[in-house]
Protein: Metal-dependent carboxypeptidase
Organism: Roseovarius azorensis
Amino acid sequence: MTACDDLMALERETQALAQVAGRLGWDQETMMPRGAADQRAEESGAMQAVLHARRTDARRGDLLAAAEGEATDDIARAQLRRIRRDFDRATRVPADLAVAVARLTSRAQGQWAEARAADDYAAFAPVLAEVVRLKREEAAALARGGDLYEALLDEYEPGMTVARLDAMFAEMRPRLVSLRARALAAEWPMLDAHFDEQAQLRLARELARRFGYDFARGRLDMAVHPFSSGSGDDVRITTRVSESDPFNCIYSTIHEVGHACYEQAIDPAYRFTPLGQGVSMGVHESQSRIYENQLGRGRAFCGWLYRRMREIFDDVGVTDEDSFYRAVNRVHRGYIRTESDEVQYNLHIMLRYDLERALIAGDLVTDDLEAAWNDRFVADFGYPVDRASNGVLQDVHWSVGLFGYFPTYSLGNVYAGCLHAAMRRAVPELDERLAQGDPGVATAWLRAGVQRHGGRHEPDEVIGNACGQALAAEPLLSYLEEKFGALAE
C-alpha cells in the first residue's frame, strides 16, 4: 500500500460520513418532526465534530504530503489538489468553532422558518446576529489577514474573487435594468385555472425522467424551499406545489433535476473521493439554470409542454402555444427570488451579495438588516416590500450560514449562457428535439462536457473546456436581450 492508497482509503470513509451528514439535512427539510429541532442540532454538531476531526487529522496531513510526492497521473493530482485545499481550509478553523457553527445553524434554520411564517424579522434577528458573528470568526481564520468575504466565497467557488464579481456585476446591471424596463412595459398573459396537486406531482415526475433523472437512485419529495441533496447512487430532489401556479412546481423540479443529474452523471470511478461531487456551486447552478431556462423555458419545449398540460389539465387558462410561452416567461413585479423571471433574477442576487458582504465586513448589523433590505429593494426594483417573508426572510441561506453562496447563483447563469451558446453550435437539431418533449440530446451534451468530470477540473477549466472560450457575461446578456427583446415587442 502506498501513501496515496492509504490516503484514499481514509478519504472514502470521510466522504461516506459526509453523505450521512447531508442526509440529516435532507430529513430536516422534508420529514423531521418539528419538535426534533434541538435534538437534530446536537446530532448535526456531533457529526460535524467527527468530520472536522477526520479532516484535520495529522495522519491525513502526513499521508497527503507523502502522496503528493508519488502522484504521477492527472487524476491522482486532481484528487490530491482537492484534498490539499480541503485540509488547509479545515486546519485553519478551530474544531470548537466548526461544531458551534453546525449546532447553531441547525437551530437557526427552524427559528428562521418560524419567523418567516409569522413575518417577524425581529424574532429571528438575535440568532442571525450570532450566526454572523461565528461566520466572521470562521472567515478570519480562513482569510489569515485577507478579505473575509472572499475567504467564505472560496468555499463555494474556488478561485473566484470579489474583484471579478464586482466587474461582472457592473457589466450586467445596466443592461439588465434597461431590459427590465422594456419588458415590464409589455403585456404578459397568465394562467388562470385550477391545477390539482397530485396531477402536478405526476407531471413533475414525468418531466424529471424526460430530463434524465434516475428515480432508481433518487426520489422526489416536498419542501418549503426546493433543493437537491446527495451524490452518486443516492441523489434526492424536492419541489413545492401551488394549485394556482403550476410553473412553481414544474420549474422548481426541472431546476433541481439539473443539480441532481450532475451528481448522478459523475464518473462512478470517482465515487467517495473528492472528485465525486460537482466542482463548485457556480458550475452546479449552471446545470440547474440551463435545464430550467434555456431548455425548459425555450419556445420549442414550451410548445410541447403546452400540449402535454392540455392533456393533463384540459383548461390551462390560455388558448394557444404562443400565449403559453409568454406566460412561462412573464416578466412581472414581484418579491421572491426563486419565482423571478430570467431578466430580474440576477438583480435579486446582486442585492443579497452587497448586503451579505456588508454584514461580514461589519459595516451592517443584523438589527438594521431589514431596513437596509427594504431600502435597497425600493432602489433596485422601484416598489416597497410588503412583508418580511417577501423580503429579508424569504431565503434560508443566511440562517444556515451560507455566506458567500449567493453570488454563485449569478455565476451559474453566466456559465449557463456560455454553455448554451456552445450547445447551439454543437447541436443543430436541438429545437427539433425539444419540440418533441425530448431534451436528451442537450442533456447528453452537458453530461459529456461538464457533468461526468465531477471535481476533476477547476471551475474556469470546466466551462472553458466545454465551451471552447473563456468565461464571459456577454453570451448570457445577448441571449436575454434577444429572447426578451422579442417577447416585449
The chain has a mean pLDDT of 96. Strands lie at 220-222, 228-231, 234-239.
